[in-house]
Amino acid sequence: MPDISVLRELLIVLTAIISIVFLFAGTLDLAELRLGGAAIPEPKLDPRAAAPPPARPKAEPRASEPREPVGRLKTSYTVQVASFRDRATADRLAVRLRRDRYVVTVARVVLPDAGVRYRVRVGTFKTRQDALRLADILKTKEKLDPFVALVTTDAPRL
Fold first, then answer.
1. How far apart are CA 84 and CA 119, in angstroms?
2. pLDDT digits (tens, 9 = 90+) for 44-79
3. What is the extent of the structural domain holding 140?
4. Looking at the structure, do residues 146 and 85 belong to the same domain, yes or no?
5. What is the Cα–Cα distance from 158 to 133, expressed in whole angstroms?
């Protein structure tokens, strides 16, 4: 059977560990904690460590970046490089383009007159001009016949 003094010391260590955890969580005041009737002394903290970081000046909103109204459609542009009836063929082209470090998606769409098609698209751009630049690169480097497609999605409702 362990000695009572060993158990008492173990209890003191465990209590100290728990108090440190609660202290850092902000739910314990050291002045209220007592062990064996003796108050725990307040720790001496470095005043430089307790000082808050200097305040940053508030950034003014940029006038050139209009915000999207909530509930409106959000538009972007992508470069469509191909459309296939077969998913495997679309995936093979996507793998080839990904090897060249392009960001590629394969989108499944159902067209009324053509049925299921798999569109291979590269990138997402805010402006049509950026998408056109990539389309030119894909045409020259990858020997594809790409075009720029407009993509509209619902903006998230807040």
1. 7
2. 555 555 566 666 666 665 555 555 555 567 899 999
3. 73-153
4. yes
5. 34
Asked if residue 77 and residue 149 are part of one domain, the reply reads yes
Helix and strand counts by DSSP (H, E) for the chain: 4, 6
One-letter amino acid of 8: R
Please give the Cα distance from 48 to 54 (Å, whole number). 12
pTM over 0.90: no
Residues 6+ apart with CB under 8 A from 111: 117
Percent of the chain whose predicted confidence (pLDDT) is above 70: 59
Q: Which residues are CB-contacts of 75 (< 8 A; sequence separation ≥ 6)?
A: 150, 151, 152
Do the strands 73-84 and 104-111 form a parallel or antiparallel pair, or are they unpaired?
unpaired
Say how many C-beta atoms besides its own lie within 10 A of residue 89's C-beta. Answer: 13
Number of domains in the chain: 2
Going by their DSSP bridges, the two strands 34-35 and 38-39 should be labelled as antiparallel
Q: What are phi and psi of 35, to 5 degrees?
A: -120, 120
